[in-house]
Automatic annotation (TrEMBL):
The active site is at D204 (proton donor). Its EC number is 2.4.2.1. One of its GO terms (cellular component) is cytosol. InterPro entries: DeoD-type, Nucleoside_phosphorylase_CS, Nucleoside_phosphorylase_d, Nucleoside_phosphorylase_sf. NCBIfam families: deoD, PRK05819.1. Pfam families: PNP_UDP_1. This is Purine nucleoside phosphorylase DeoD-type. PROSITE patterns: PNP_UDP_1. It comes from Phaeobacter gallaeciensis. The gene is deoD. The record marks R217 as: Important for catalytic activity. Residues 16-231 form the Nucleoside phosphorylase domain. GO terms for biological process: purine nucleoside catabolic process.
Amino acid sequence: MTIHIGAETGQIAETVLLPGDPYRAKWAAETFLTEVQQVNNVRGMLGFTGFWNGHRVTIQGSGMGMPSLSIYVNELIKDYGAKTLIRIGSCGGMQENVGVRDIILAMTASTLSTPSRGIFKELNFAPSADYGLLHKAFHAAQAKGTPTHVGGIYSSDVFYDERPDLNEQMVRHGILGVEMEAAELYILAARHKCRALAVLTVSDHLLTGEALPSDQRESSFGDMVEIALEAAFANQD
Ligand SMILES: O=P(O)(O)O[C@H]1O[C@H](CO)[C@@H](O)[C@H]1O
Ligand SMILES: O=c1cc[nH]c(=O)[nH]1
């Protein structure tokens, strides 16, 4: 049991999927896992452990933004021994060829700042995904036929952005989408020698203004969860 996670030692699997939304954790656990046990409800940040194709996996909400994710990921790694951490999140599309419902596999995550800024000081560390997970996720997505993009994303500290000039530069430099957690996940994984990846579903588009209606989100998000699970456990069957 930690300050923010009520699970007993041993109740968290080595592989953890991390949606920002705790209700997405509940939906994904109930939809994709068997023998599901709720392992956290501290602050309503729901977490569940169960099995997928015989593999033990935890799905734990991370909250919105890097400071929140940092709390859960620090405790999952340091107190519960998590080794593979895959974010399953929504994001805003930023390129014309990226459509709503498409999947983005975040190879790198640019930022203005992260909770780790203080330790890096003048170093502009480049947060990047675990290549093995990225490679497996790409093949899993291709096998499904889900439109998938691999490349750089932007992890923002704000949802309501006031810097259109910055967005212009990111679009110009090929950034695929914007979300709010992946960069700090990648940094923490690097620091603690864990594997991390962000698998994202495009829920809205910054250039077109298109947004996925809430009733259509579940099925699109399903592909993302399956891709994450297949990547985590590829070659382990
Ligand atoms: O859908 P989730 O995983 O929460 O991710 C995205 O949605 C939230 C903003 O609405 C932020 O957490 C952002 O990263
Ligand atoms: O952070 C996010 C998530 C979804 N859509 C956005 O535009 N931003």
